[in-house]
Amino acid sequence: xxxxxxxxxxxxxxxxxxxxxxxQGADVMAIDILTERVDEFASxxxxxxxxxxxxxxxxKSLGIRNFEHVIVAIGDNIQSSILTTLMLKEIGVKKITxxxxxxxxxxxxxxxxxxxxxxxxxxxxxRIANNILSNNVLDYLELSDDHSIMEIxxxxxxxxKSIIDLDIRARYGxxxxxxxxxxxxxxxxxxxxxxxxxxxLIIIGADVDIIRFEKKVL
Length: 218
Ligand code: ADP
Hints:
It is a single chain. The longest helix has 14 residues, at 78-91. The chain is built from nine helices and eleven strands. The chain has helices at residues 12-23, 35-41, 56-61, 78-91, 103-111, 120-133, 163-166, 168-172, 207-217; strands at 4-8, 27-32, 47-50, 69-72, 95-99, 116-118, 137-142, 147-153, 175-181, 184-187, 200-206. By secondary structure, it is α/β, with parallel strands linked by helices. It has two domains: 4-118, NAD(P)-binding Rossmann-like Domain (Rossmann fold, 3-Layer(aba) Sandwich), CATH 3.40.50; 130-217, Regulator of K+ conductance, C-terminal domain (Alpha-Beta Plaits, 2-Layer Sandwich), CATH 3.30.70. The structure holds adenosine-5'-diphosphate. Adenosine-5'-diphosphate binds at residues 8-14, 31-34, 37, 52-54, 73-77, 80.
């Protein structure tokens, strides 16, 4: 049976959850209070709905109770996040995951019964710090709050694959800017270029995508 999820809040975090769940074959109802956000997901999510999820009647009419797992990815609006979580508990949703903005928010969410509280910015900072120290990442340059350039070393898992085999632009939204091989620097390498062990890839992308890539591929 197909897994069914609801994602509330289609910002960068919620949006990437929707995309990944869909990529992995799940059914997703994507909800946001803003029409333009919902429009963006109309052709991606199984269902995309404009709704204010702090309204219990709205949640009931959407049949949210029948989904196995609801993810609350409402960002800065802590009040909406808390109210939504409370309403979801009230209507009896089995599993609720909520994104917390800070420790205080997290505490409240746990008190009202959120099953899982995630802290993506904090966790990602820790993750990136670890990645900087890891063997695969040679260098790292923060371009903005959420984009970076990284130098990663090619291990045996990806050596002898071509760039097109890895398909990282389509799958992860990451671009390989250059390959360093010994003293050679190949700028904008061709898609059929075969990677060699110990090549250094210079990649650019969103931190979330780079982390996803590292987790899955390296
Ligand atoms: P991120 O940091 O992940 O980019 P944002 O704050 O940009 O987070 O995204 C949160 C989303 O949640 C926004 O698109 C916002 O419109 C949506 N949102 C806020 N309040 C509600 C609500 N009451 N019901 C539904 N969606 C909401």
